[in-house]
Amino acid sequence: MEWAEIFSEGRTVAFLLLFTRFTALFMAVPIFSHMNIPMSVKVAMAFFFTIFFFGAVPPLNIPTDALSLTVAILGEMLFGLAVGIVLQLAYHVITFAGGQISFMMGFSLASAIDPQSGVSMPIVSQFLALLALMVLLIFDLHHWILLYASESIASIPLGGFMITPSLFQYIMHAMSNMFVVGFMIAFPITALSMLADVIFGMLMKTMPQFNLLVVGMPIKIAISFIVIIVTLGATLMIVTAQTQDAYNFLGKLL
User: Fold this and answer.
1) Which pTM was predicted?
2) Residues 117, 122, 123, CA angle at the centre, nearest 5°?
3) How far are the Cα atoms of 119, 187, 229, 239 from residue 233, in angstroms, in the given order?
4) Residue 51 has pLDDT above 70, yes or no
5) Measured between alpha carbons, how far is 44 from 54 in angstroms, rounded to an integer?
6) Which residues are within 8 A (CB) of 128 and not within 5 positions of it... i.e. 6 or more apart?
7) Please, how many CA atoms are within 13 Å of residue 69, restricted to the half-sphere of its CB?
């Protein structure tokens, strides 16, 4: 390929759109969007992968005027945002479940800044989210994302991404599924906590000197931690399966 062709208007616009696609992906998808990764590193990774995959970009089929270029850039940003939302909804099942568990344990006010999203969340949610993140790394989610980005170059033309009804319906389904699966994960602790409350209420009726805050709360917390340890493997398997389903759906968009 001659230098004049490499730096032609069409190839320059294609490079810009591909760079926008990778940047949007790294800003939205799990693992790459981690708040502890500096913005300069994310941009540098997007630039590196743009150069790496630029040779696989097909010829550009859109006009290069200002309006068409603006619409194409917004479309690439929307593509990265859509992929990120689909994967994040599957990943945040565990954080929602952790919030329910924290509430039942009495840890609702014990919160910390989540390094993944940069927002405050209960410590149980943060603990489970970090474990889920490590499991997703073990299962090569970061490689899945790069592979998907590579396949999208040939399947979805640069600047040609459109929101389909199936994508919108899946996002709505994933949002409702996040609540259902989150409640399902937190159900064992919720049920045992309610049972413990009933037992403690009966004890307080029979023994008024029974101090619920001094004796009851540590017992509830200990029971909850035991249940978390026992169900941790199944919980992480559920999160992995949810992420796999989300990735499989993204494959249908190609």
Assistant:
1) 0.82
2) 95
3) 26, 15, 8, 10
4) yes
5) 15
6) 94, 95, 97, 98, 101, 235
7) 11
